[in-house]
Design goal:
The strands form five sheets. A six-stranded mixed β-sheet has the order 2-1-6-7-3-10. A three-stranded mixed β-sheet has the order 11-15-14, with no helix packed on it. Strands 4-9 form a two-stranded antiparallel sheet. The protein has two domains: about 290 residues, no CATH class; about 120 residues, no CATH class. The protein is an alpha+beta fold. It has 15 helices and 15 strands.
Length: about 475
């Protein structure tokens, strides 16, 4: 083995910096890897210090959003990890998605979700162990003692920090007693505030409870022992980098090439979605739905005879109901929207039978589709998803009544078979026309903005005018 003949020959080359690069890629998959046995394997890995955090994590990452039970009344003001895992696709602006979630057959006793045992993270750990063995063998072949000790210390660092960051997942699953089995099925409404999108989940009561459950991350070590192992890992990392800096040139090149390969591998593993590293025991199917076909044209005018002094004259009178008025308003709104799309050089033809493009969707359409799919609007009363005022409260109540299957105002939501595939057709209710009518009535009946009358100041407050206060500058009053 070749070591130093004198202390002056000690070198601290910067090749060791390569071993601590790539912290972002390692940090992104560190929590997932901490659930698996291969997380403790002695191996080479880029930026092992990324596993040394200030405090132990208590939960899996959450996202901003709202989860509401359509019938149960449960409300969750965040999207837990189970919700993100089952529905990873990001919805577009004001998009509505209708999905069904069911437990897979034969997996009733399996946990709802767990880390993928055959994922890419296990391959990364085995690759790091293999590279560590290769470098140890090359150090012996070239007789490089510094490279041998550096490889051993860096491999030991991954084991120390890996053991310190190991944890297990605890998910509270609903109890399977007889009383709970008799509870009716429940739908879940997920609201994404950033895009205004909604996702309707049709599932049983067992699956719906998981959307409101907070999982916990239980570490294998307490805080004291965690810091002890973190300190040992820091010491081995520092001395390992010093040893790499004093290795022979050929071994330094080998170390640099090894860590470049590991950085690329970890970057590829972290670039895919986090749901790729997990598995769950549920079948998630997206159901297609459409707005209803256009309403039937209004009945032709009925000629009636109106008596005059000379002779009977046939005149045409129209009797329009509130429903027909709403239909007219709805068609006018869509006609204006269609013209607006055409002026913007849209090539596609927009009619009443085609749902608006994602670019032209509005929040009212998303709300009505969610209400029609869930069959109720009660869940909107428990959150601040929709605006809170008299007009919107009335519209939400009317929309909930119209979404009922036994509603006398319109045909309820139903399912049809198109080319052998089921397709849902929403209730034929002029939701936009009704909202426009309610706002028009509110505008005529009630004024929110104060308006002041135009009157001369000296006729109302003569004492102010004569005192000279009204002629002073605003900043001097």
């Amino acid at each position: 083995m070749i070591f130093l003949d004198a202390f002056s020959e000690l070198q601290l080359d910067i090749v060791g910096i390569v071993a601590i690069l790539g912290e972002a890629s390692v940090l992104r998959v560190s929590q997932i890897s901490g659930l698996s046995w291969h997380h403790e394997l002695p191996r080479l890995m880029p930026a092992p210090q990324a596993l040394l955090k200030h405090s132990l994590e208590k939960r899996l990452p959450v996202e901003a959003g709202k989860v509401v039970g359509a019938y149960s009344g449960n409300v969750n003001l965040e999207l837990n990890f189970f919700c993100q895992l089952l529905h990873p696709r990001e919805l577009k602006n004001y998009e509505v998605e209708f999905v069904t979630v069911k437990k897979r057959k034969g997996m009733e006793d399996h946990p709802p979700y767990e880390v993928n045992p055959a994922g890419s993270l296990r391959t990364l750990s085995l690759l790091g162990s293999a590279l560590s063995v290769i470098l140890i063998a090359l150090s012996v072949v070239y007789g490089d003692g510094w490279a041998l000790i550096g490889t051993i210390l860096l491999s030991l660092t991954s084991t120390l920090v890996g053991f310190a960051s190991r944890w297990k997942l605890e998910v509270k699953q609903p109890a399977k007693d007889v009383k709970l089995m008799k509870i009716h099925d429940s739908d879940v409404v997920i609201f994404y505030p950033r895009t205004g999108a909604l996702r309707i989940v049709r599932c049983s009561e067992f699956e719906s409870r998981l959307y409101f459950t907070s999982e916990s991350c239980k570490s294998l070590l307490n805080d004291t022992w965690y810091r002890v192992f973190a300190l040992l890992g820091t010491v081995t990392l520092i001395f390992g980098l010093i040893c790499i800096g004093n290795a022979q040139t050929i071994m330094q090149v080998t170390f640099a090439s090894t860590y470049v390969l590991l950085n690329i591998s970890y970057w590829l593993a972290s670039s895919v979605g986090s749901h790729k590293h997990w598995i769950h025991s549920y079948d998630v199917q997206v159901q297609e739905f459409d707005l209803p076909p256009p309403a039937a044209p209004a009945a032709p005018p009925v000629p009636t005879e109106i008596s005059t002094d000379s002779q009977p004259v046939k005149r045409t009178t129209f009797q329009t109901t509130d429903q027909e008025k709403d239909d007219d308003i709805e068609r006018n709104v869509r006609r204006r929207t269609t013209m607006r799309f055409r002026t913007a050089s849209f090539q596609r033809r927009y009619t009443d039978t085609v749902r608006f493009a994602k670019d032209g969707r509005i929040f009212t359409t998303a709300l009505w589709e969610a209400i029609a799919l869930s069959g109720t609007s009660d869940w909107l009363q428990r959150t601040n998803i929709a605006p809170k005022n008299d007009v919107w409260d009335r519209w939400i109540q009317m929309a909930g009544e119209a979404a009922r299957m036994d509603s006398p105002d319109c045909k309820g939501t139903h399912e049809i078979i198109v080319q052998g595939r089921p397709r849902i057709v929403l209730s034929a209710w002029p939701y936009r026309g009704v909202l426009a009518r309610l706002f028009a009535e509110e505008q005529n009946q009630r004024k929110w903005r104060p308006e002041w009358s135009d009157r001369q100041l000296e006729n109302v407050y003569p004492e102010i005018v004569h005192s000279g206060i009204a002629t002073q500058a605003p900043d001097s009053v």
